[in-house]
Amino acid sequence: MRGTVSFSDVMDLGYNALYKADGMETISILLVDDSESVIENLKAVLEMDRDIRIVGKAKNGIEALEKAKAVLPSVVIMDVRMPEMDGIEATRYLKERYPEMGIILFSVDDNTHFRLEGLRSGASDYYVKGRPTNELLAMIKRVYSKVM
Description:
Largest sheet: 5 strands, parallel
Helix content: 40-55%
Number of strands: 5
CATH superfamily: Response regulator
Shape: globular
Structural class: alpha/beta
Radius of gyration: 15 Å
Number of helices: 6
Mean pLDDT: 86
Number of domains: 1
């Protein structure tokens, strides 16, 4: 657990409190995509899982670097293709500064080149948009278990 938590912090978080009744920490996630609708859809699906809490969102790699520094998520889910700074370049920067942070790159392209470049840049895994969300949830939990 990073930092201290006050009673009012826990009350503000509601259902997805920092610690659940079983004592396990929730997985904090930063969502990064240049499409607001993709972010909102992902957020809605992921927040149904009580192990997950969305702590921020960004629309490009530059914003992702700023948000990650501010909220220190356990896992970042980041689109590969974005304006200003793409997900692969942002992953390199994040892994240099926060090697313990898990990063899942995602794209509509099931492209071997993107997948390999993403993994070389330090990404923990690669998810293809449109695959079943239970695969993404399992991937998030697997990545989290390796970084924590």
